[in-house]
Amino acid sequence: xxxxxxxYTPRDISWLDFxxxxxxxxxxxxxxxxxRIKFLAIFSSNLDEFFRVRVAALKSFKAxxxxxxxxxxxxxxxxxxxxxxxxxDKQQNQFGRVVWESIVPALHRENIFLINEERLSAAQLxxxxxxxxxxxxxxxxxxICQEGGEPPFLENQKLYFLLDRGPGKPFHLINIPxxxxxxxIVLPEKKKKIHYIIYLDDLIRAVLPRWTGSTxxxxxSVKVTRDAELYIGDEFSGDLLAKIKASLAERxxxxxxxxxxxxxxxxxxQERVQAVFNLTKYDMVPGSRYxxxxxxxxxxxxxxxxxxxxxxxxxxxxxxxxxxxxxFKVIRKADQLLHFPYQKYEYVSRxxxxxxxxPAVHTLRITLYRVASNSAIVSGLKxxxxxGKKVEVFVEAKARFDEASNLYWGKELxxxxxxxxxxxxxxxxxxxxxxxxxxxxxxxxxxxxxxxxEKTARLYADHALLTADERLTKEVREVFEFLSQxxxxxxxxxxxxxxxxxxxxxxARIDREIAFARxxxxxxxxLKLNSLEEQGMIDKLYEANNAGVKIRLIVRGICCLVxxxxxxxxxxxxxxxxxxFLEHARIYRFGNNGKEEIFLASADWMSRNLFRRIEVAFPxxxxxLQQELKDLxxxxxxxxxxxxxxxxxxxxxxxxxxKAEILRRSQLDSYQYLRKKKDH
Length: 680
Prior knowledge:
Elements: H1 11-25, H2 33-61, H3 66-72, H4 77-109, E1 112-115, H5 122-136, E2 142-145, E3 159-164, E4 171-176, E5 184-187, E6 195-199, H6 200-212, E7 218-226, H7 240-251, E8 256-262, H8 267-276, E9 284-287, H9 327-333, E10 336-340, H10 346-357, E11 361-368, H11 376-386, E12 390-395, H12 403-416, E13 419-421, E14 428-429, E15 432-438, E16 444-448, E17 460-467, H13 470-483, E18 496-498, H14 502-518, E19 524-529, H15 535-547, E20 550-555, E21 572-577, E22 582-583, E23 586-590, E24 597-601, H16 607-611, E25 613-619, H17 623-637, E26 643-645, H18 666-679
Parallel strand pairs: 1-6, 8-9, 11-12, 12-13, 14-25, 17-22, 19-20, 20-21
Antiparallel strand pairs: 2-4, 3-4, 3-7, 5-6, 7-8, 10-17, 11-15, 15-16, 16-17, 18-25, 19-23, 21-26, 23-24, 24-25
Helix pairs in contact: 1-2, 1-4, 2-4, 5-6, 10-11, 14-15, 17-18
C-alpha cells in the first residue's frame, strides 16, 4: 500500500448526501407528479429516522468524558453534529423550494390547489368550521406552558401548535391530531374540474380565532423527534428477549434528538420554549410552517389520472418456475434465480406450501428479519406445522422499528408449534435463508438479498437463488446449526459468512485482482451495494486502484469512498441509481483472470455488516445464471436516465448523455430484459 493519506467521506455526511439525491428526484420533471410527491415523503421519513438513530448516537457520545472520547472515537461528535445541522438546514431550505417552486406549480397545472387559511372563501370557511367542531375539536387538548412548571410531554413525531398570546403571557400547547385524521382535507367545490386541498394544520389555524375567542393568537408548529435506540444494557446476561420487550416500551419516551420548530417563531418565544422544555442549542432545529412531510405518502388525488403515476409494471412469470407443476423438480434439475420486483414473489410462498404437502420433507428452517403484516410466508410455515413438519425459525427481534412485529410473528409461530429462537446478544442475524430438508432426496435452499416480505418485494429490487446444490445446501445447514447453537462456528468453503470469514475472503479476492494487475493481466472488480463504509475495505479498494485494477461500483446509499482522485482512486467509477424501485441487492463480481466469480449477498460493506451481523454471501455457479446477472449489471451500468455520478465534488450530477444517445433507464430495461426471457 502507498503512503498516501486516503480521503474518506464521514458516514453521516455521506448519508445526508444520499438523502439529498432522494430529494433531487422530486425535482425531476420526467418523473410523474405523484411519484415526485412520494420522493418528498421518503426524504422526510429518512431524515426523521436519521435524527432518531444517527444524531441520537452522536449526542450519546457527548456523555463520554472528553479524554475517553479521544481514545475511543475517530470522530469529534460536537464538530460532526454542527456539520450535520448546517447541511440539514440547507437541505430543508431546498426542500421548501422544491415544494413551493416545483411541486405546487405542477399541481396548479392539474387544477389542484393547495391553499392555506388566508385564501378561503366564505363557503369553504363554513365547511371547515363544521369539520373542525365535528371531527377535530374532540381530539384536541390544550396545555399551559410556563417556566418553572412541569413541561407537557411531547410525543415522538406528533405535531403540535405553540399558541403565542403575546409577551409576558404563558404560551399554550395544542396537539394537531394528524394520526387520527387525514393530514390533507379535500374541500368541496362546485366547479368539478378545480380541486382545493388544505392542510389539517391550516384548517385549525382558520378556526383558531373563533375557538380561542381571540384574534391575537399566533400558532407556530413544532415537532419532537426522540431517540429510537433500544438501550438494552448488558445483552450478554439475563433474558435478552424480555429486555427487548421492556426497551420497546421506553422508545417513544426517549431523549429528544430534534426539536423542529417554525423558523418564523419570534426569537423571544424560541428562548422561552428552550427554557420550558429544557432543550440545548443542538436540539433546536429551525424548520418550515409545516412538519411531518412523510404525510405526503397519503397526499390526496382528486382526479385519478394514470399519467400522474409510474406506468404499471406487473410482476412477470419466471420462465421455468411458472410452467412447473412441482418447483422441487425444476430446482433439483438446475439452480434458479428470482429477480424481485420484476418477477412474482409468490414462488417463495409456493415453495413453502409445496414443502408442507411433500411427504419427503421433514424440516423447514428459516431466518426472519422483517415480515409483512399479512405474511404468506408465515401462513405457509403454519401449513407445514399442521402437516406434521418440523419448523425452526430464527427471528431477529432487534430489527430496528420492526421489533414489535417480529416478536408478534415469533409468538404466532410458537403457538402453532414451531421452534422459535430469537436474537443473539451483541449481534444481529441479517442473512436471508430458507432450508427445506428431505428424507432420501436432495435438500433445497433459498438464499436471498432481501427479506422474506412480500410487501417490500413489490418495491425493493432484490435477487434470490433457489438451489439443490449440495455444496450450498450443506453449508446453509451449517449456518442454521450455528443459529440453533448446535455448533460454535459454521465451517464453510463456498458460502462467505460474517462475522467469520466474509471480510477476509473478500480481502483475499481483492488481493488476487491486485496480483493479476501487477502481473500485467486483466483485473477488475464490479460491486453493487447499498452502502460502502468500512474503512479497511475502502483502503483495500484504493490499493487495488493503485495496482491498476479497474473498479466499477453501483452504490445506492452511503459511499465513504472518494472516487476519481489521482493516486488514490482514478480507476474507480461510482454511480448511484434512484428510481421507482429501491435498489436493495448486493452483487460482488471479481474478474479472476477470466474465471469470473459472482456472489449475491445480504451484506453491504459496512462495519456493522462485516463485524456485528450474521450475513451470507453465496456464489452463483450456474453459467447461465451468471450471465443473467452480468447482463443485469451491464444494463444498470449503462443507465443514462437515473444514474448519478458519485464524485469528489458531491454534486450528484446525472450521467451526461449526448442528444443522439438512446435513453437507457435501467429499471425499465431490466424489466424488458426479463420479459423477453419469459417470452422465450
